[in-house]
Design a protein that fits this description.
It is found in: Cell membrane. By secondary structure, the chain is an all-alpha fold. 73% of the residues lie in helices and 0% in strands. The longest helix is centred in the C-terminal third of the chain and has 38 residues.
Length: 284
């Protein structure tokens, strides 16, 4: 355990404390101990670029998580029908999750590129008015990112929820069959409540991916057009390497850390106290 303990205590804890401390200083290109209090955070929340980044990641996260959970559940239900070649289909659906966002971004950038992608191919067939230029328009670029992200991460949600479906007692299915409940109604009204922990696990993992999204944005859009696809992680990297503003970068990184902690910790706290309240009511 010694190497692991050393890594956690020295590397992670020291790096975390150093990052938080630096966010309260006027550090620029190099770290400094010039304490400025909350100035970096005031500048951060007053920045139009940061505000746009937060809005964009909220839109991306909402659509990305809901899309992955919905499509993942539908694929899990289809695979739960004892179809032939299930292993092959499961491998195909999960294969995209094995790719990095860099690879996914490059592929989807080619597909959506107006000069070389689908638009150019269709227009070469004589349909001159066809448009497939989502990446070049400010009002649609974020949705192109969502489509690429959902394509890659749906397989992860599918596998988690399929494991939940396979863990359901056969007696449940027998009871619904005896009661004459349509199978699709069971999947819509009964099963989601029974696999709630799996859905919550998938949602948390996808939420972490959405908050930290960076490489997909850089490869596909570079944050553009304009600020249409700017995200917090890119804001941190730009402040760190392009503008040499270490204090501002660490302040943004600290806010992202707090968001992740709330996102991961709050559901567990809510579930814990809900169980204690239920247990207390049952005991009384």
């Amino acid at each position: 355990m010694t190497p692991t303990i050393f890594f956690v205590v020295v590397v992670l804890c020291f790096g975390l404390v150093w990052t938080i401390w630096t966010s309260f200083t006027a550090s620029k290109l190099l770290p400094s101990n010039d304490f400025v209090g909350m100035d970096q955070y005031f500048r951060l929340f007053a920045s139009n670029l940061w505000q746009a980044s937060v809005v964009n990641v909220a839109v991306f996260g909402l659509l990305f998580i809901s899309g992955c959970l919905t499509l993942g559940y539908l694929l899990a239900v289809l695979l739960d029908q004892n179809i032939r070649f299930e292993d092959g289909f499961r491998t195909i659906f999960l294969m995209s999750a094995s790719l990095s966002f860099v690879v996914t971004g490059i592929v989807w950038q080619w597909v959506l590129d107006p000069t070389y992608g689908v638009q150019a191919a269709v227009r070469s067939w004589g349909i001159a008015g066809f448009r497939f230029d989502f990446l070049t328009r400010q009002d649609t670029a974020i949705y192109a990112l969502v489509g690429a992200g959902v394509w890659q991460a749906t397989g992860l949600g599918m596998v988690i929820m399929l494991a939940g479906l396979r863990g359901i007692d056969q007696d449940i299915w027998n009871a619904t069959r005896i009661d004459g409940v349509a199978r699709w109604k069971v999947y819509v009204h009964v099963i989601p409540a029974m696999i709630r922990p799996m859905i919550a696990t998938a949602a948390v993992l996808l939420s972490l991916t959405a908050i930290k999204i960076y490489d997909l944005v850089v490869v596909m859009t570079g944050g553009g057009p304009g600020t249409a696809t700017e995200v917090p992680a890119k804001y941190v990297m730009d402040m760190l390497f392009q503008r040499s503003n270490l204090g501002q970068a660490t302040a943004a990184a600290t806010v992202m850390l707090l968001a992740i902690c709330l996102l991961v910790g709050l559901p567990f706290v809510v579930v814990h106290f809900s169980r204690k309240r239920i247990a207390g009511g049952t005991h009384r």
